[in-house]
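Case 411 in the screening queue. Each case pairs one protein sequence with one candidate compound; here the compound is flavin-adenine dinucleotide. For every case the pipeline is the same: read the inputs, emit a complex structure as tokens, and attach any notable structural observations.

Predict complex for case 411.
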Amino acid sequence: MSNSADNSSQGHNNPRLTRADCEVAVIGAGPYGLSMAAHLQAKGVRVRVFGTPMEFWAEKMPEGMLLRSPRVASNISDPAGTLGLEAYENACNRPPSAPVPLRDFVEYGRWFCHGLSDCLDRRNVVRLGRENGEFSLALEDGKAMRVRRVIVAAGIGSFKRKPVVFKHLDSALASHCYEGRRVRDFMGKRVAVIGAGQSALESAALLHEAGAEVEVIAKIPQLRWIGMHPRLHQLGPISAFLYSQHDVGPAGISRLVAMPKLMRHVPIGIRDRIRTRAVRPAGSKWLPQRLSKVKVATGRVVLEARAVGHEVKLKLDDGSDRSVDHVLMGTGYSVDIRKYDFLSRELVDGIRVLDGYPILTSGFCSSVPGLHFVGATAARTFGPLLYFVAGTDFVSREVAAYVARQGSGTR
Ligand SMILES: Cc1cc2nc3c(=O)[nH]c(=O)nc-3n(C[C@H](O)[C@H](O)[C@H](O)COP(=O)(O)OP(=O)(O)OC[C@H]3O[C@@H](n4cnc5c(N)ncnc54)[C@H](O)[C@@H]3O)c2cc1C
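Case 411 output:
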């Protein structure tokens, strides 16, 4: 893997700043960053992707997890359509699995990288600024470079939502589902899992299976499950009319969500309602059975959490108490680009946002010329498909076509 992006001519303001050997820098090497690179390369654009490939999936998701998205919606898009999940399985002699195990998906993402080795750069970007109409990237090894166009594909890892009531607790006592703790470390421990979404419920199942004593505490009155109307999926052309293959959202909404180009023109109030409905907290249909022996308290909120020695004492809104060894927050995330700590203050201040999401136009351009955002940060503009891997196809095609039309400059 090449690490030599910093050569050629000197920058004029900063002696350490050199012009990158690329036209476009992509920050983040998850499904969106990798797919972006494949599409840009195919258009003849010199691109460099920063970060460790598939790091978030390999390091931060609960080990043993299964993908919630169906196989057909778990392909990282490439222009020729030859680097899908099935192609990976065939190439590596792996039997197809559904649901897709996390481990296989991580390996698939790494296999996808083979065709990109020239443009992968494992260094993290520690600071992105802008000077004289160009972007300056400071890298973790102290090197720096300039580039005209940047695509931020940095995922949701920075957006973890931690309820205030747990914020003061030490990380040994309370952690977020996306902090990559190993479930087997909780064997024999009492764990309160907070939340009712896929991450919370799947973590609860995994912890229970690893020998922890688990209780799920959820504020919704009843747990919900995805895909609990199988008959609606078995009506041939009617089902195809109601559901897209990505299967994000309920009947009807699923079809709309699959058209991000159209979603962008839906009035923001309705678009927000569709988004909230499509990704409301719910677990996959294969979870209820795995959770049948797990205690669940629904319609409950934790009012107080106190560390006492090695335990946490919880007080719930029905007056009941719990003593646990660990609180696991499956409380999702809230997009807020100010939490990307690599964005310089001046740059952030120049980006027009709506409730933390950048306001984007066609080509996924933000209000700063040459700066694009893809993945979850674009979901407010283009709808909830962009929270998922299934969105890589639309996004990469759109952005690559835009960049190819514009050239490396930022007109
Ligand atoms: C528990 C869980 C389960 C999920 N299950 C599914 C599922 O089944 N199907 C699905 O489609 N989606 C699922 N998702 C959503 C998933 O997060 C997105 O689909 C996917 O990660 C989007 O890809 P991405 O490239 O935008 O983000 P990521 O995969 O998060 O990739 C972004 C990468 O950028 C890197 N990065 C961040 N900052 C920098 C920096 N400064 N320099 C260099 N690199 C940087 C990060 O380390 C990360 O590796 C799940 C999410 C969670 C949390």
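Case 411 observations:
- The longest helix spans residues 392-406.
- The pocket of flavin-adenine dinucleotide is lined by residues 27-33, 50-51, 55-57, 61, 67-69, 124-125, 153-157, 178, 199, 342, 375, 387-390 (CB under 6 Å).
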